[in-house]
Design goal:
CATH architecture: 3-Layer(aba) Sandwich
Structural class: alpha/beta
CATH topology: Rossmann fold
CATH superfamily: Alpha/Beta hydrolase fold, catalytic domain
Strand content: 15-25%
Helix content: 40-55%
Largest sheet: 8 strands, mixed
Length: about 260
């Protein structure tokens, strides 16, 4: 699959299928592989595009600092390459990048699907500061595989989900501590709350019932967005694209292709 020099870095992305482009943006510490079940589902009706963000997966990992705005500008360059505008789906940090993209490059976005994401990550509570600190301290002291094991227990706590816990531990081990930490720093303190009303495209917000952040946190920004609706997936947790792909795909398809 192609590498392309875009926005000053070698960006890795994959495409599949034909039709309107549908771009998927992964979360912190992840890669194109998080969307395998979505690519299988959507590539017969869309041209699916998955990308490894700067500092992730097979994309270049430059020494400079990262920011959500910088991730969004990388994605904007990719959208030009695939001759957008595009529909955009983002999970967790990928949803933040998608929101920033819609604010900074509105002409490139046909619609947004925001999965278990937030419109801001303020460090104004002890809990918020602790969450950021954990993601910095564990990798530095114990390594990225330990970070993956820690997250795996939170993301996939059920007894029969051991294969998911092993999968995330192995994938997280592929990240460097330095690049993971730079991405954590990109998230910390980020916000687009004051710009939400400028996003005019249709927006689907998908919230897992058992996500890190409560459904109510998503309800807040859904009310601010001019054209948004919320769908809740009962019993699901944060990594819903991997844990409950069929349910997520059904909700997404209902938004993108209500005629089916």
């Amino acid at each position: 699959m192609p590498y392309k020099n875009l926005n000053g870095i070698e960006l890795y992305y994959e495409t599949s299928g034909e039709g309107e482009p549908l771009l998927f943006i992964h979360g912190l510490g992840s890669s194109t592989r998080d969307w395998q079940d979505q690519v299988k589902c959507f590539s017969d009706k869309f041209q699916t595009v998955t990308v490894d963000l700067r500092g992730h997966g097979q994309t270049e990992k430059p020494p400079s600092t990262y920011s959500i705005s910088l991730f969004a500008s990388d994605v904007a360059a990719l959208i030009e390459e695939v001759e957008g505008p595009v529909h955009v789906a983002g999970i967790s940090m990928g949803g933040m990048v998608a929101l920033q993209l819609a604010v900074d490059y509105p002409e490139m976005v046909k619609s947004l699907i925001l999965i278990n994401t937030q419109d801001e990550v303020l460090l104004n509570t002890r809990q918020a500061r602790q969450a950021v600190m954990i993601r910095k301290v564990i990798p530095r002291l114990m390594g990225m595989k330990w970070m993956g094991k820690y997250l795996g227990k939170k993301l996939f706590p059920e007894e029969d989900q051991g294969h998911f816990r092993e999968l995330i531990a192995n994938r997280w081990a592929e990240n460097s501590v330095k690049d993971y930490t730079k991405s954590v720093n990109a998230i910390a303190g980020w916000s687009v709350r004051k710009h939400l009303q400028s996003i005019k495209c249709p927006v689907l917000v998908v919230a897992s019932e058992l996500d890190y952040t409560p459904v109510g946190a998503k309800e807040v920004y859904v009310k601010i967005l001019p054209d948004a609706r919320l769908e809740v997936i009962k019993g699901a947790r944060h990594a819903v694209s991997v844990e409950r792909p069929e349910e997520l795909n059904k909700v997404m398809m209902g938004f993108l292709r209500p005629d089916l």
